[in-house]
Amino acid sequence: MSVRVQKTFEALFALEDLRGILRGSLPTGLDEEEEKAFREKISDLKSIIAELEEDRGTPRTTMIADTLPIRSREENYINIQPIQAAGRLTTEARKALISYGDGYSTCDACRKPFRLDKITKPSIAGFHADLAKFVNMDQARVVPGARRGFQAVASTLVSKGDPVIVSALAHYTEFLAVEEAGGVVKEVPLDAGNRVTADATAEKIEEVIRESGRTPALVMIDHYDYQFANEHDVRGIAKVAHQYDIPFLYNGAYTVGVMPVDGKAIGADFVVGSGHKSMASVAPSGVLATTDEWASKVLRTTAMVGDVTNRKFGIKEVEMLGCTLMGGTLLSMMASFPAVKERTLHWDEEVKKSNYFIDALLSIEGSKVLSEYPRKHTLTKVDTTGSFDTVARTHKRRGFYFSDELAERGIVGEFAGATRTWKLNTYGLSWKQVRYLAEAFQEIAAKYDLPITT
Ligand SMILES: *Cc1c(COP(=O)(O)O)cnc(C)c1O
Predict the structure, then answer these.
(1) Would you say the CB of residue 145 lies under 6 angstroms from ligand 1?
(2) Residues with Cβ < 8 Å from 70, sequence gap 6 or more?
(3) Is there a smaller number of Cβ atoms within 10 Å at the N or the C end of the chain?
(4) Is the CB of 84 under 6 A from ligand 1?
(5) What confidence tens digit (pLDDT) does each residue in 396-432 have?
(6) Do 365 and 391 meet the contact criterion of CB atoms below 8 Å apart?
């Protein structure tokens, strides 16, 4: 770990220690003992700051609670891990996290009718309205992950034995949401380019109706899938779904928060996004947005009455189990939101950087791209069987030589040991970092005499 990164963490921890003293004191101020501890901490902090400034010193702490190592991957490395890129917190989100990390921190000013999305201090109600507008839908709720969005929809719309149309590239959480609701997934096969088309979806719906006698309860398709990040024709598919009167769930786990998403233009009945994957938010977080028409069903309120007490819980929404993200998760989403909104406007630049890197990789002979190319996304599946893997075959470290070489250059996040097919994500890297990344790959290739076309 770089000394400066280490010292930054130490300074942050020292400040948290100070904060701990403040929290333990009386509202009237510190007592003598606390004051002494406070001064000692301040003096520690000053020496840490001096070390930080001068880029020197040995580690004072490497663990949190004696067992948890400091995670400094984002400070010390370029991280190309496929699912982590767009979930990295903004600086504002990290501030929100330290400020609102306490359990039910959203609930300070919760007033009647006691529901998370109605809270106005901080502006959680306003955030919900902004979120709906952001994906151009009527209503939105925050949920603990995209998967909980699928679950809420499936639990409402899918009855026992109902078929649900997903793609042959569907995420496992879609399978699980359908399974839990008692439904059965039916996958739309891919075309030769690993894409889901509207025609193939129509054919699958026909086949399911013919064979089971049941109309699917839901069509749920990823705009960009997690395996190749190929783009699928969600607009065409939504249209097909509606021709059969089937609601359409747009899975935006890899889109909402990184590129503009217009739910109405797509024809979505539900838009689901992932906070920790694509909205620079703490996990588990996400969004479920819908139309007014479907809100009355998926966001239905409780009708349950206690038989002994006669209690009712009014406007609590059943699928949300009342309230969802009650602390640092939601506040991190809110703190990142202005930056997230802004960054979606520069998606084309992210795609350019993605293609810049992929082109550099392709210049290393034998390398291939398994995703559609040119890239329309920053997540890409590559095949380096014909390049980096040829070295692994005889190297004593096998595929790990490649991770070693990358780590030595400050690059992490590729699947350790994998030199055949693997995924990477360039989202959020600056041009400086992308160029560095491209050069590092070419440098490693050159070191092992892999030919490079220029
Ligand atoms: C990551 C991912 C999910 C799951 O998202 P969570 O927010 O972790 O629940 C669902 N679908 C796709 C396509 C994904 O890539």
Answers:
(1) yes
(2) 1, 6, 9, 61, 62, 63, 64
(3) C
(4) no
(5) 999 999 999 999 999 999 988 889 999 999 999 999 9
(6) no
